[in-house]
Amino acid sequence: MKRRIAFVCYLGVSLLLMGFGIRYYFGGELMPYHLEAIGVPWETLPETLRFMFLLFMNGVGVGFICVSAAMLVMLFVPFRRGERWADLTLPGIGLAVSGMLVVMMCSIMQHTTARPPMTMVLVTCGVLLFAAALTLLPCCRCSSGRN
């Protein structure tokens, strides 16, 4: 039962990362908090800057899509087989990406008036930690000799 709950948690995080990746890759304009951070309306930016900003955002989107795809493959193959390395790798990858986002968002909030979606990223970190605890920590009933 614990592995099924962890599976759903990892699946949700993976799909969320995929959604962000698709949004960032196919977005034709910066996110609202990006625009607030730079403090200039999108239309007033020179075309070359708009191109570069979108290129950077598209690159982040590709990164999210790749991380999500890797997590999904690990989830549906080695995790479902019960391979221990997947129990360690899934939260490791997810927390590495989410942790990086927390650091970057904190920096944005410290240096600008923008408010990125920090709550969503923190909830994602919590879900990853919860799923990791389910698969990595021993079962209290099992370790006390009861089944």
Question: How many distinct helices?
Answer: 6
Which sequence of SSEs, written as H and E, runs from N to C? HHHHHH
Portion of residues within helices: over 70%
**In angstroms, what separates the terminal alpha carbons?**
13 Å
Please state the average pLDDT score: 91
Strand content: under 5%
Strand segment tally: 0
Oligomer type: single chain
Please give a handful of descriptors for the protein shown.
147 residues, mainly alpha, single chain
Descriptive account of the structure:
There is one protein chain. The chain is elongated and about 55 Å long. The mean pLDDT is 91. The chain has 6 helices and no strands. 80% of the residues lie in helices and 0% in strands. Helix 1 (2-26) packs antiparallel against helix 5. The two termini are 13 Å apart. The protein is mostly helical. The chain has a domain at 2-20 and 62-137.
Task: Summarize it.
With 147 residues, the protein is an all-alpha fold.
Strand and helix layout:
Layout: H1 2-26, H2 32-38, H3 47-81, H4 84-111, H5 118-136, H6 140-143
Helix pairs in contact: 1-3, 1-5, 3-4, 4-5
